[in-house]
């Protein structure tokens, strides 16, 4: 399996921080701030749905990264990937081992719709 990893992604998860007034704010936090992985990002298709009297478009993507100690350690925490070149965000729905050899991880993601 030969894959061209032309993009770079950073992984994020939801976190809470105090706002200084006794409340907390939900926000995205980079997991392992210095971790940027090379990736192949491939669109798989899209759909549109009418919700609350407006059209909501979603596009499905597959993000492929090399499996290594850093990416395997993040599996339980990752909710979102961010393309470091374009800033586009991808909500991660599932992570699979496509070649069953542990060389790559494929993340099925969507853009559009709710963020996270």
What does this structure look like?
There is one protein chain. The chain is mostly beta strands and 116 residues long. It has one domain (7-111): Thrombin, subunit H (Beta Barrel). Helices cover 5% and strands 58% of the residues. The protein is built from one helix and seven strands. A six-stranded antiparallel β-barrel has the order 1-3-4-7-6-5. The longest helix is centred in the middle third of the chain and has 6 residues, at 69-74. The model has no long low-confidence stretch (mean pLDDT 87).
What structural keywords apply?
116 residues, mainly beta, Thrombin, subunit H, six-stranded antiparallel barrel, globular
Number of helices: 1
Q: Name the helix and strand elements from N-terminus to C-terminus, one letter apiece.
A: EEEEHEEE
CATH class: Mainly Beta
Looking at the structure, the CATH topology is Thrombin, subunit H
CATH architectural designation: Beta Barrel
Spatial strand sequence of the major β-sheet: 1-3-4-7-6-5
Level of helix content?
Answer: under 10%
Low-confidence stretches: none
Return the structural class.
mainly beta
Number of domains: 1
The outline comes out as globular
End-to-end Cα distance, whole Å, is 31 Å
Q: Sketch the major β-sheet.
A: 6 strands, antiparallel, barrel
Radius of gyration: 16 Å
Please describe the topology of this protein.
Blueprint: E1 7-18, E2 24-30, E3 37-51, E4 54-66, H1 69-74, E5 80-83, E6 89-96, E7 104-111
Antiparallel strand pairs: 1-2, 1-3, 1-5, 3-4, 4-7, 5-6, 6-7
